[in-house]
Fold Aminoacyl-histidine dipeptidase.
Amino acid sequence: MNEAIRELQPKEVWNKFADLNAVPRPSKKEERVIQFMLDFGESLGLETFKDAVGNVIIRKPASKGMENRVTVTLQSHLDMVHQKNNDTVFDFDKQGIEMFVQGDWVKAKGTTLGADNGMGVAAIMALLQSTEITHPPLEALFTIDEETGMTGAMGLEGDILQGEILLNLDTEEDDELDIGCAGGIDITATRKYKEKSVPSDTVAYQITVNGLCGGHSGIEIHKGLGNANKIMNRFLYGASNSFMLRIAEIDGGSLRNAIPRESVAKVVILKTQSDEFEKTLKEYESTIKKELNVLEPNLKVSFESIKLPKGVMGKKAQTRLLQGIYAAHNGVYAMSAAIPDLVETSNNVARVLVKNGKAKIGCLTRSSVDSAKMDLANALKSTFELASFNVEFSGTYPGWTPNADSKILKVAEAKYKALFGEKPKVAACHAGLECGILGQNYPEMDMISFGPTILGAHSPDERVCISSTQKFWKFLLNILEDIPKK
């Protein structure tokens, strides 16, 4: 299946992408891909090493005639988001990604593709291996754990990199040059509750919300896509006011930076209410599908009878849970006043897990303004504390402040216009890029971010555009030819 990928142009990039996607590389489990990258650099006879936290650095001397140019650091992250469709049988810890070509796109079979940020990694690998491409001195920085905390970038010490210019290859629109990004913070709300015995004369149901698009909780948060956790909670909140409903379990969402696609709840109700309950569920599915029919055409709310659970939440704890999730802001919170059409602040209610006397709600709050990030974080903290949860902040990382006077930006803008006959969009993005973190230890480094067009990142609908990859590769090579002299 992946052999067709190797025949795409530019072959040097697609072959490296296929090699990379054969290596399992989940966040926080990057041992295999780290070794893969160390072996790759050493096989080329290049200076190759791993830092204290696991980032891999490979250095390549300039091509002939380019020795007097400024050293360029090329940066991408090794890990990828692991998501799959609920009917896909796949072991991310053991299997390589199965890819196929559909028109002008490369996709994966029922899983995330890993184009985020595998295309950037592949492009850098192709540059390191080439004996024909004209380039200045190169320093490749392959970071780890970008998707679940950016701990690789955070752990990079300030005396390792030698580059004066950094090209981050992690942007997902090929006509965009990013010069800024949002920072983020994880919010985790937890509480314990005493399980109660299952009321008599009850029946149990499993309710499933699925078929949602999901996607990147930064790049795609402005689209208003359905959040499975909020959709499930809306029904449970309403039904608990109309029926003798008790929650046994909820399992919704997965990763902090992915818009939740699925949620499953197990509940019990009185036997005498079962017919009316099923009718209400069907009516709710119809209502929510009408609301989201344009954005979520495949949304489904279904139910099935199951055997009675061992225990359920008490009424008071259940009410607090449902109220807390209902009140928690999800989606865009504020738009930027400084940059048109840029989401400034947002929140993703990413994870809801209720089981065995423990409830946990996980959110990722983002903002390009640090004070606004903390304002929304504190609003969510207050919401959950009012619902009797304990709240912790973690994983905070800074945004990347735009520098409109960047010298490498001027080079890239001129190259883009000369190559493609139009000006690129110079923008900041609502995703978290590692540039803001790297800039803390390397404040003088001149940075921009760009990449090929990737849609549906962080979901099984992830896909990368073939013609856009050709454009991206051409653009990258031309930028490297015009790096300033020392």
Notes: Residues 187 and 476 are 37 Å apart (CA to CA). The chain has two domains: 3-181+400-481, 185-397.
